[in-house]
Design a protein that fits this description.
By secondary structure, this protein is an alpha+beta fold. The chain is built from 6 helices and 18 strands. It has a domain of about 200 residues. The longest helix is centred in the N-terminal third of the chain and has 15 residues. It holds the Pfam family NIDO.
């Protein structure tokens, strides 16, 4: 009975890791063991690692789920890694309170070097590493939960070129200490590249995501100016391979051009007018005297004039809109002057706004500013640039100053 239970346990453990083949690790494979603590462990490299075109001879293994170069990462770093100013590679950067860390740095483990070389060669050019670093975070837990994360980081280098593997066989949690796990590459000068799902609740999907068609496995060349994806090396599609996961977010959708104000001229803006655009990509033809109605004949004549030299464009017909008559009231001379001063140039005493403003006072820029900075205005109201609530915009306001 005991034997059956042990075999069943072995099958279940094997099933949990069947999709992601980790590099062999553990004390039986020559690993050192670090019991969980709050401090990083230093490691001197026999062969240097090139990272962001810089050579490093020492690295630090952090219980937070990252390795750093020349400076350690500890529990005091709660902010985003791109703001810390430390060169680091993070497969899963998050606070944890339990688990074990296995690591080895070797130039003599032929099986590990051959395994890494084979995997790299399938996606990059042939590469023969002379040194490998392997770090495995096993069964990492967070405070107040029994869920566990297991993940692995492997570095292969020959002193000039360097490659990194990130492997995620089993992820059960993504948030710790009210922050989501981060993953990516970070240089002390501020350069950084984040992994997909980094800093989101979907981080647990990393075990079903890959950039080399192998669930839970990621591979990058890190010795260049920026980390290089093997899909770019092979000119393949730039999308991640993943299972049952939609990474598209509505926050990234481009604004719709249907939100733009209508342009009566469309693509046939007269030569004497000005076409302007805003940061949404909307365009509008603005003239000194915007018409209320644009006839097809006027548009045709405008198109012909744009194709011929020294031809006068006929004036566009305008629809005259009669203003409602405002009852005249006798106003003492002194109050009339005061009213003119308060209302400004838009309202001249008892007269409404000028529907046929002169081109010398109504410029394309002034009309453009009003049209593109507000909601869509009715065509017949384009020249009415009076402040809202002025005597010209409301007949009832003609007695406001009395």
């Amino acid at each position: 009975m005991l034997l059956v239970r042990l075999l069943l346990f072995g099958v279940l453990v094997g099933a949990a890791f069947c999709h992601t083949r980790l590099f062999k690790y553990g004390e039986n494979n020559g690993d050192e063991v670090i019991e969980h603590s709050q401090a990083s462990s230093a490691l001197h490299l026999q062969v240097p690692v090139r990272f962001y075109e810089q050579t490093f001879n020492d690295l630090y293994i952090s219980p937070l789920g990252a390795i750093s170069f020349d400076e350690s990462l500890d529990e005091s770093y709660d902010e985003a890694l791109e703001n810390v100013g430390i060169s680091a590679i993070a497969p899963l950067f998050a606070r944890s309170n339990g688990g074990k860390i296995f690591y080895r740095s070797t130039s003599g483990d032929g099986d590990l070097l051959a395994d890494m070389s084979h995997r790299i060669g399938k996606h990059f050019h042939d590469f023969q590493p002379s040194h490998a670093v392997l770090v495995t975070w096993e069964g990492m837990t967070k405070e107040g939960s029994e869920k566990k994360n297991t993940f692995q980081l492997g570095i292969a280098t020959d002193g000039e070129l360097s490659y990194v593997f990130m492997l995620y066989p089993s992820l059960e949690w993504a948030e710790s200490n009210e922050q989501f796990a981060q993953a990516g590459f970070f240089h002390s000068d501020g350069r950084h590249q984040l992994m997909i799902n980094s800093g989101t609740a979907n981080f647990v999907q990393m075990s079903r995501t890959s950039n080399i068609n192998s669930d839970g496995v990621f591979l990058f060349r890190i010795s260049g100016e920026v980390p290089e994806d093997p899909r770019n090396e092979n000119d393949d599609d730039d999308d991640y391979n993943y299972t049952d996961y939609d990474y598209e977010s509505s926050d990234n959708k481009l604004p719709s051009l249907s939100d733009c104000p209508p342009d009566p001229y469309k693509d046939m803006c007269p030569a004497r007018c000005q076409r302007i655009s805003d940061d949404r990509g909307c365009t509008l033809c603005v003239c000194p005297h915007p018409p209320s109605v644009v006839s097809s004949a006027a548009v045709d004549s405008t198109v012909d004039s744009n194709n011929q030299d020294n031809r006068v464009v006929p004036e566009e017909p305008r629809e005259v809109v009669e203003q409602p008559q405002v009852a005249e009231q006798e106003i003492p001379e002194g109050q009339k002057d005061e009213r003119i001063t308060q209302a400004g140039t838009c309202a001249q005493a008892e007269e409404p706004c000028n529907q046929n403003a002169d081109a010398s006072t109504t410029t394309p820029d002034s009309v453009a500013s009003a049209v593109l900075s507000t909601t869509v205005m009715e065509r017949s109201a384009w020249p009415r640039m009076c402040p809202k609530g002025s005597p010209a915009s409301s007949p009832a306001s003609s007695t406001a100053t009395r």
